[in-house]
Design goal:
Largest sheet: 4 strands, mixed
Structural class: alpha+beta
Number of strands: 6
Number of domains: 3
Distance between the termini: 11 Å
Shape: rod-shaped
Strand content: 5-15%
C-alpha cells in the first residue's frame, strides 16, 4: 500500500495541568525531515518526538506544533507564606507608628509583596508524557490520511497506465502499415535510380530505413515499464523514488517514439503518451 506525503491532523486534550493541542502537517520532501515547534517547558521532548516520527514515517517534511494552555488560576491552589506576611505587617505597622495619619494597611498590598503569595510549580512530567501520547495518536491519524490519499493516487496512476497501454497498442497495430508504406515509397523513389544502384545497395537502404522507423523495441519497453509501475504500487514500502525513476524511463521511450515517428498518427500517440506520463509524474512527486 502506498502513502501520500500530504496530510494534516489536529488533536486536543485537556489535562489537569492544562490543555494540550497538537497540529501535525506533512508535505512532500526527498527525505524525512521533522520540524517541531514546542513551548519551552516541552523542548526536552524533541529527541523522542523525532524518534517516534521516524518510526511512523519514511519520507516527507513533518511540521509539528504543540500549544499548551495552563489550567486557569481558579483551578490552582494559592499558597500564602504566613511568616513572611507577618514580618511585612510588622514592618508596615512600625513604619505607620512614625507617621501622622497613616493609611490603613491593605491586605492586597501585603499579598503583592514578593514571596508572600505563590503558585506551586507545575510538575511537567505527567503532562509531557500526555503530550507524547497525544503526538503518537496524531501520527496514527496522519498515517490513516496518508494511506487514504495514497490509495487515491494509486488509482489515478493505474488509470493513466491503462490509457498508455491503449496508445501503445494503437502504435503497435499501426507499425506494419507504416513500415510497408515507407518501404513502398523508397522502392518507388529508387526505381528511377535502379540503373545507378546495384541490388545490394538497394537492400542496404531498405534495411536502414526499416531500422530507423521500427519502434517495436520502444513499445516493448513501454509495456515493461508499465508492468513495473503496477508491481511497485503493490509494495508495502516507500516507493516514491522508484516510481519517479520509472516516470523518467517512460518519458524517455515516449520521446524516442516521437523522434522515430514517420506519420502523423504515431506523432500524436507520442504527444498523448507524454501528457499522460507528465500527469503521473506530478502525482508521483507526492508519494512517500
Amino acid at each position: 500500500m502506498i502513502h501520500s506525503m500530504t496530510a494534516f491532523a489536529r488533536l486536543e486534550e485537556r489535562h489537569s495541568a492544562g490543555t494540550l493541542c497538537w497540529e501535525l502537517r506533512t508535505v512532500n520532501h526527498r527525505y524525512l525531515e521533522v520540524s517541531p515547534r514546542l513551548p519551552d517547558e516541552f523542548r526536552v521532548l524533541e529527541g523522542k518526538l523525532r524518534e517516534r516520527a521516524a518510526g511512523a514515517l519514511r519520507r516527507g517534511k513533518l511540521d509539528c506544533q504543540l500549544r499548551f494552555q495552563p489550567a486557569p488560576a481558579s483551578d490552582t491552589e494559592l499558597v500564602v507564606d504566613d511568616a513572611l506576611a507577618a514580618r511585612v505587617l510588622t514592618a508596615a505597622g512600625g513604619l505607620a507608628g512614625r507617621m501622622e495619619n497613616p493609611a490603613r494597611i491593605d491586605p492586597f498590598d501585603v499579598l503583592r509583596w514578593p514571596g508572600v503569595l505563590s503558585v506551586p510549580e507545575i510538575d511537567y512530567g505527567p503532562v509531557r508524557e500526555a503530550a507524547l501520547d497525544l503526538f503518537e495518536r496524531g501520527l496514527a491519524d496522519l498515517g490513516t490520511t496518508r494511506a487514504r490519499e495514497g490509495a487515491r493516487l494509486a488509482d489515478m496512476i493505474l488509470e493513466r497506465c491503462a490509457g498508455i497501454e491503449v496508445l501503445v497498442t494503437t502504435a503497435a497495430n499501426r507499425l506494419p502499415e507504416v513500415l510497408a508504406h515507407h518501404r513502398q515509397r523508397l522502392t518507388d523513389k529508387l526505381a528511377e535510380l535502379r540503373a545507378e544502384l546495384d541490388q545490394d545497395r538497394l537492400e542496404q537502404e531498405m534495411a536502414l530505413l526499416a531500422n530507423k522507423l521500427d519502434v517495436a523495441e520502444e513499445l516493448d519497453r513501454l509495456k515493461a515499464h508499465l508492468a513495473e509501475v503496477r508491481d511497485v504500487l503493490q509494495r508495502d514500502e516507500a516507493v516514491g523514488r522508484r516510481l519517479d525513476f520509472l516516470m523518467q524511463e517512460l518519458n524517455r521511450e515516449a520521446n524516442t517514439l516521437g523522434s522515430k515517428s514517420a506519420d502523423v498518427a504515431t506523432t500524436r500517440v507520442s504527444v498523448d503518451l507524454k501528457v499522460l506520463i507528465e500527469q503521473m509524474r506530478e502525482q508521483v512527486q507526492n508519494i512517500e
